[in-house]
Design a protein that fits this description.
Distance between the termini: 18 Å
Low-confidence stretches: none
Largest sheet: 8 strands, parallel
Number of helices: 11
Radius of gyration: 19 Å
Helix content: 25-40%
């Protein structure tokens, strides 16, 4: 088995800002796995929040042994970006070797489109209202917030898109005091979910706190080992393959979360259609799908995912799986 790691850069359609900073491009790692005349591939987005860099993740992948199975991979690498790209590449390889689609190998029903959120970058209230108005035709908007002055932004987005459903992502940017101050206004403005309002290390403050709308764990939820610490704090968990370390663990986390009474959101880092493709399988029938990464790009893979009024469609065999 031969593994190759390459670096790819995709320009964004516009500057993308969250509470931790801004970017103008998506830097990703593309992993190919070759065996027996077949090639599978996957993509990951190393994330500085989790102490990952392009160099560190490349080193993890290049440090793997010469031959191993997808099952063995789960113990060879920890949950994170490196394992994600290799795991998804192995799923793609197995599908090509078997002449089947990945969902058939995984015992899943044939997937269909899912309505996806579209993310509005953090900006001034005026610019966020303009973003909202431009995208008011979309059924679900996700707002990047996470500052002490977010109420005007939320009001502005609602004014710009009066008919869209709204979810909020604070990216750990609020304190317990800020969240408590904003919470009573969320229902009034039609907010349906708040993602990671407090820093992951300080989210015990959510225990016993009034939650007028569901609160979703993102940075606080990585894999199945995260679940015991989330009870009583969160109503929803956000599954991202770059956190779970691939499709294999993502499917297991989804099933475990549902069994424990959590609702499930399936999210993404800012990457190409190749990164989103495996996640479309996890998203089937879940409470919230947030796989808009390709919609934020100015360029994409040669066989991109299809987005239309029905949502994000599962990948073609030419793209992945």
């Amino acid at each position: 088995m031969r593994i190759t790691v390459t670096r790819d850069v995709f320009k964004l359609a516009q500057v993308f800002t969250i509470s931790r900073g801004s970017r103008t491009e998506a830097k990703v790692l593309t992993v190919t796995v070759e065996q027996g005349g077949f090639t599978g591939w996957g993509e990951c987005v190393p994330y500085a929040r989790y102490d990952e860099t392009l160099d560190s993740v490349t080193a993890e992948i290049e440090g793997l042994p010469a031959d191993f199975s997808r099952a063995e991979l789960q113990a060879l690498l920890p949950a994170g970006a490196a394992r994600n790209a290799v795991d998804c590449a192995l799923w793609d390889l197995e599908a090509k070797q078997a002449g089947k689609r990945v969902w058939e190998l995984a015992g899943l029903a044939a997937p269909g489109p899912e309505i996806t959120a579209y993310t509005l970058s953090l900006d001034s209230p005026e610019k966020m209202q303009a973003q909202a108005a431009e995208n008011a035709f979309r059924p679900l908007l996700k707002i990047k917030l996470g500052t002490a002055d977010d109420m005007p932004r939320l009001e502005a987005v609602r004014a710009g898109a009066p008919d869209s459903s709204i979810i909020i992502d604070a990216n750990e940017g609020w304190s317990a005091e800020i969240y408590a101050k904003l919470a009573p206004h969320l229902l009034r403005l039609g907010v349906e979910l708040v993602e990671q309002p407090l820093p992951a290390g300080e989210d015990d403050a959510l225990i016993g706190m009034e939650r007028p709308v569901p609160v979703c764990a993102d940075e606080s939820c990585h894999d199945r080992e995260s679940l015991p610490k989330l009870a009583g704090k969160y109503d929803v968990v956000n599954i991202k393959l770059d956190k779970t370390g691939g499709l294999t663990e993502a499917l297991k986390l989804r099933d475990a979360a549902l069994a424990q009474g959590f609702r499930v959101m399936v999210g993404c880092m800012v990457g190409s259609s190749l990164a989103m493709a495996p996640a479309t399988l996890v998203a089937q029938g879940m409470a919230v799908t947030d796989l808009d990464g390709p919609l934020l790009l100015a360029e994409d893979r040669d066989e991109p995912l299809k987005f239309d009024g029905a949502g994000v469609h599962p990948p073609s065999a030419k793209l992945w799986g």
